[in-house]
């Protein structure tokens, strides 16, 4: 086990220079102008435009396997196995931020949380069991139907609000949440910057935003695509496009431009001997970031 499970960031300035001065960023990026060019395609503000971040090809891909969301041995097995580790990070960071007791059975009591890109609800349900008032949204109607059906099986999850909609539409409805969570979603959207603007707009002032994704590194290409999709067959071929991955520094910049300051970041590391994921300082492949929305 790593000596430190969470990498705490110092407060980040609004300039790329100060972000890149962080050790883990400086080692991979020599100049702010080398950051992936899609970050600079538009000026990012807390206001959300009419543009949509939806990627129709990705929606069709996930719609075709929606019926398997709760099959622990199916295409979503990696997410089922990773879920306890993802929840450990979320529980730790949200309890610290909202001054909740992480050891009680329902630490998220009183918090409104939205799970953006909820799929079949495999994250929404444990969040509800931990006491949160949960809204799960997904643009794939079949995913929402599966999520609703499964949530009805337990009294603690029956009240989850599932909506077939997008983050942009929720912003138009002026919805706000204490915490906005979107895991393994941003690599599948058409416009990451626009998507993060929506996440920020949904987050109350001083609220929390949690995003996880896959680093665009050679190691991730070897493990998350070649090994996971073509050798081990953990995922259907074509699930991920390496060019759509974001590096940690790119995600920090995108979120910062959307008024979200990243406070903590951790990696997920898989142990093939135990078949389990653990939190780590290694962010070279899978990683998760916790940020807070700047006060208005």
Automatic annotation (TrEMBL):
Its main location: mitochondrion. InterPro entries: SAM-dependent_MTases_sf (IPR029063), UbiG_MeTrfase (IPR010233). Its cofactor is Mg(2+). S-adenosyl-L-methionine binds at residues 86, 117, 138, 183. Keywords: Magnesium, Membrane, Metal-binding, Methyltransferase, Mitochondrion, Mitochondrion inner membrane, S-adenosyl-L-methionine, Transferase, Ubiquinone biosynthesis. GO terms for molecular function: 3-demethylubiquinol 3-O-methyltransferase activity; metal ion binding; polyprenyldihydroxybenzoate methyltransferase activity. It is an enzyme of class 2 (transferase). It is a peripheral membrane protein. Mg(2+) binds at residues 184, 187-188. Pfam families: Methyltransf_23. The keyword Methyltransferase applies. Belongs to the class I-like SAM-binding methyltransferase superfamily. UbiG/COQ3 family. Component of a multi-subunit COQ enzyme complex. This is Ubiquinone biosynthesis O-methyltransferase, mitochondrial. The gene is COQ3.
């Amino acid at each position: 086990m790593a000596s430190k499970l969470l990498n705490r960031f110092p407060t980040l300035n609004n300039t790329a220079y100060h972000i890149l001065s962080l050790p883990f960023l400086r080692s991979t990026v020599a100049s702010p102008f080398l950051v992936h060019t899609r970050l600079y395609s538009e000026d990012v503000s807390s206001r959300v435009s009419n543009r949509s971040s939806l990627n129709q090809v990705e929606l069709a891909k996930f719609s075709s396997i929606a019926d398997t969301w709760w099959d622990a041995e199916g295409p979503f097995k990696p997410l089922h196995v990773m879920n306890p580790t993802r929840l450990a990070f979320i529980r730790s960071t949200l309890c610290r931020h909202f001054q909740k007791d992480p050891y009680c059975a329902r630490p998220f009591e009183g918090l409104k949380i939205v799970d953006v890109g909820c799929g079949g609800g495999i994250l929404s349900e444990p969040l509800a069991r931990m006491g949160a008032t949960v809204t799960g949204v997904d643009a794939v109607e079949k995913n929402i139907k599966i999520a609703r059906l499964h949530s009805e099986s337990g009294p603690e999850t029956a009240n989850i609000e599932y909506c077939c909609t997008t983050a942009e539409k929720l912003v138009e409805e002026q919805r706000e949440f204490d915490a906005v969570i979107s895991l393994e979603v941003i690599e599948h959207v058409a416009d990451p910057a626009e998507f993060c603007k929506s996440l920020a707009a949904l987050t109350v002032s001083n609220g929390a935003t949690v995003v996880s994704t896959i680093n665009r590194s050679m190691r991730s290409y070897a493990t998350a695509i070649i090994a996971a999709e073509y050798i081990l067959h953990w995922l259907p071929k074509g699930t991920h496009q390496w060019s759509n991955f974001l590096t940690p520094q790119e995600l920090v910049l995108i979120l910062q431009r959307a008024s979200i300051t990243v406070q903590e970041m951790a990696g997920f590391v898989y142990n093939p001997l135990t078949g389990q994921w653990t939190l780590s300082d290694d962010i070279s492949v899978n990683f998760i970031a916790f940020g807070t929305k700047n006060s208005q």
